Amino acid sequence: MTEHRDVVVVGGGQAGLSISWHLTQRGIDHVVLERDTVAHEWRDSRWNNFTLVTPNWQCVLPGYAYSGADPHGFMKRDEVYEFVRSYADSFGAPVRERVAVTSVQHAARGGYDVETTDGRIHTDQVVIAVGGYHIPTIPRFAEKLPESIVQLHSSEYRGSAELPDGEVMVVGTGQSGAQIAEDLHLDGRKVHLVAGKAPRVARFYRGRDCVAWLHDMGHYDVPIQDQPGGLGKRENTNHYVTGRDGGRDIDLRQFALEGMSLYGRMIDVSDTTVQFTPTLEASLDAADAVAESIKDSIDAYIARSGIDAPEEPRYVPVWRPEQEVTELDLTQCNITSVVWSVGFRTDYRWLRVGVFDGEGHPCHNRGVTAAQGLFFLGLPWQHTWGSGRFAAVARDAEFLAEQITLRVRESAAA
Length: 414
Description:
InterPro entries: Auxin_biosynth/cation_transpt, CHP04046_FMN-dependent, FAD/NAD-bd_sf. Pfam families: Pyr_redox_3. This is MSMEG_0569 family flavin-dependent oxidoreductase. It comes from Antrihabitans stalactiti. Keywords: Oxidoreductase. With about 425 residues, the chain is an alpha/beta fold. It folds into two domains: about 5-135 and about 345-414, 3-Layer(bba) Sandwich (FAD/NAD(P)-binding domain), CATH 3.50.50.60; about 135-340, FAD/NAD(P)-binding domain (3-Layer(bba) Sandwich). It contains eight helices and 22 strands. The chain has helices spanning about 15-25, 40-45, 75-90, 175-185, 210-215, 250-255, 280-305, 390-414; strands at about 5-10, 30-35, 60, 65, 95, 100-105, 110-115, 120-130, 135, 150-155, 165-170, 190-195, 205, 210, 260-265, 265-270, 275, 325-330, 335-340, 345, 350, 375. The strands form six sheets. Strands 1, 2, 5, 6, 7, 8, 21 and 22 form an eight-stranded mixed sheet that branches. Helix 4 links the parallel strand 11 and strand 12 (about 190-195). Helix 1 (about 15-25) crosses helix 8 (about 390-414) and helix 5 crosses helix 7 (about 280-305).
């Protein structure tokens, strides 16, 4: 027999659990399906020394918040995992672990048929809470590298000790790439870092964490349609910074002074020879410009609000490339491994409902799609910049819970 549930939530991470909390509070029948175990991505897809880049006080989920002794610190990987696991336990979330969803499609009798590895479930409403990072991206030209060079994606990286002896190339300077380069650098490995277009942000400025300033300024609350560039913001790379050792800037120029080799964008590979475009200096300047523009906004907010905050000198670049390298032989440099940190792509092949654009991205407004009863939660920039953070996931979940509750009441009254 086909099981029936009023709501099926796909995904048992913080997003799926957040909507589950709201549905539980409202007494709405539902089940959360998780293909692995609750919060497993925090444990299984982060490196050993991973830390959050957002302070612990921002770790707020519906009915639950960080309560440790270091609110201004940054939880490590295993602490984040336990935080989310404990959240599920705190309200007895109805999660079925190790149940994979193989398809979701419109049902002939209305609603949706959800096929799983544990049977079929018919439901009136579905919440897709699997995030937006599904399949690791590695450029096709990586296939040209010889088998003697170990290649792995940033999601597979765990630590320096698991890589072969020799020098390491890290490709990409988003949050993961910059932090992995730092991790290897601190462990004494010679690192070759291929820089992209990612912006950066200072960790602290004028006596506070920049996150705290931006939080007070309301930056995490501005709807995406009111942002410069509108929906195009969803394609933006996050600013690189670190929470390691209490938090600090990631300054690639300082790394270069300390012996890290930096390069512009990688464009091709031929056996052991790698080619780059001379974009390094422009990328470093652009990243610094973003960091300084954020400081400009903070300065203006402090002046406007009459806040007594200490003055702080502005950043002065400590290094510039004398001549950009456009070609490098990995063998001659003893580079024995490459860590690709160039992102992910989505994979919704199992979701057989027409709610996607031409590039395979969900079409939605705050998670609400044109297909009645089908919602998304936990997407980057789902509604605001804060949507990618614990606290705003909670807000996004509450909004969707209200939509779901309205539909349940309308159905009951029909």
